[in-house]
Amino acid sequence: MTEAGGTGDRAAAVIAALRFDKDGLLPAVAQQHDTGEVLMLAWMNREAVTRTLDTGHVHYWSRARNALWRKGERSGQEQRLVELRVDCDGDTLLLRVEQTGVACHTGQRSCFFRAAHDGALVTIAEPLMSPGELYGESGH
């Protein structure tokens, strides 16, 4: 891997194949590499993709905060990149990751912990920890 922050040839070739939206973003689905469990969906810009490839630690773009962030930088619940895949149109990423702990800011293993059953939205998995445990008393 290249030094963090520097664009290596490998990252540049991947970036060239991507089709970012009008805001410079594309969706990225994080999946546990060994089980196939879908953990979360987030957004990446060019810098997030580059830093992820350069460091092996997954970075995302927060639309709410308008800022780059490394998964787990506050909570310790990190994602290590195992493989980055690009869909056929080049406009969506699949990140096969090694997730440390929970992926969701709610304390759930996966952000997809609710399902539609018989016309109602039901919780299908209980949280493994509270947001307070992840981020301190103030939440995320």
Summarize it:
The chain has helices at residues 9-16, 46-55, 131-135; strands at 26-32, 38-44, 59-62, 67-70, 79-86, 93-99, 114-117, 120-123. It has 140 residues and is of the alpha+beta class.
Question: How is this structure best described in words?
Answer:
Helix 1 (9-16) packs antiparallel against helix 2 (46-55). Strand 5 and strand 6 form a beta hairpin. The protein has helices spanning 9-16, 46-55, 131-135, and strands at residues 26-32, 38-44, 59-62, 67-70, 79-86, 93-99, 114-117, 120-123. 16% of the residues lie in helices and 32% in strands. The strands form three sheets. The chain has a four-stranded mixed beta sheet with strand order 2-1-6-5, covered by helices on one side. The protein has a domain at 9-104: Roll (Ubiquitin-like (UB roll)), CATH 3.10.20.810. By secondary structure, it is of the alpha+beta class.
List the helices and strands and how they pair.
Layout: H1 9-16, E1 26-32, E2 38-44, H2 46-55, E3 59-62, E4 67-70, E5 79-86, E6 93-99, E7 114-117, E8 120-123, H3 131-135
Parallel strand pairs: 1-6
Antiparallel strand pairs: 1-2, 3-4, 5-6, 7-8
Helix pairs in contact: 1-2
N- and C-termini, Cα separation? 31 Å
| Mean pLDDT over all positions | 91
Number of helices: 3
Q: What share of the residues does DSSP label as strand, in percent? A: 25-35%
Q: Which structural class best describes the helix and strand composition?
A: alpha+beta
State the strand order across the main sheet.
Answer: 2-1-6-5
CATH topology of the domain at 9-104: Ubiquitin-like (UB roll)
What is Rg? 16 Å
Number of strands: 8
